[in-house]
Amino acid sequence: MSPRCSELIKNSFDDGQCLYKVDATTFELLNELELDPDEDAPMTMGVHTSTSDVVCGINSSKKKRRIGDNQNCRVFGTKDDQITKKQTTSTLKIEDEEVDDYQKATAFSEENDILAVGSTNNEISLLSFPSLTPLADPFKIPKEGGDIFDLGFLGESVMVCGSKSIYFVSLPGDKKGSEKLLRATSTIGLPSLPSLSKGTTCSFRSSRISKPKDENEVTTLFAVVNTTPPRSARGGARSAYVCVYSQQGEANEWILGRTKSVSNKAITVFDIK
């Protein structure tokens, strides 16, 4: 993470964004930017670790969406402690006012040259950054994979975390958009967790990758699994687990090594350092 990113917090509120400087004793508001009154609130955020550009998911006004102009993927600069609008693109069309789709997940590749955005219609778009040019046709999470929750990158793959499955999708070979079809090369299904009541359902909530620090270590994937007890178990705890997977070889093959119950409530935010 860049020094600037370690000092600043980018925060979204209902009508725009705030930029804060944070240290051991200070939480200082530096700047804020309000959106147009008819636009949606920011729903997801990703930070470019070199330039500190911020990419947000913000639906356009209903009037613009009606004509197919939903500029949902937006880039903001944070240079000189100011939030500035830089550019936008559309990855999500919403022409029906009854549809509540929005951009739900945003992530940069390790080299910050590819941007992945996922929306509640379960489509994931890969864009070249900073041009925001599409690199391929969107990847659609299969129905059995559940709903989009998280995105990440590992080498030449993008990790797509659905509520029922985690997919590793190969990146386009030349990054110029000649390969239009994105394919999943491997899939991780929901694990069998111990000591759960009959009828308890499980779902992935988030996933993060830890790369090895030396040749004796392996790449590790940490996945959060939330549980929901059956209706018959009134007042039952909604336990949350962290599951640890190890990568086998260079292929995206993963072995579940251990699971641990970490909360009696559902986890909504998760990260590793």
Describe the structure.
The chain contains two helices and 19 strands. It starts with a helix and ends in a 10-residue tail after the last strand. With 273 residues, it is mainly beta. It is 4% helix and 45% strand. A hairpin with a 4-residue loop joins β2 and β3. The strands form five sheets. The protein has a four-stranded antiparallel sheet, with no helix packed on it. A four-stranded antiparallel sheet has the order 8-9-10-11, with no helix packed on it. The chain has a four-stranded antiparallel sheet with strand order 12-13-14-15, with no helix packed on it.
Summary of the model, kept short:
The chain has 273 residues and is mainly beta.
Helix content: under 10%
Q: Measured on Cα atoms, how large is the radius of gyration?
A: 20 Å
Beta-strand residue fraction: over 45%
Main β sheet profile = 4 strands, antiparallel
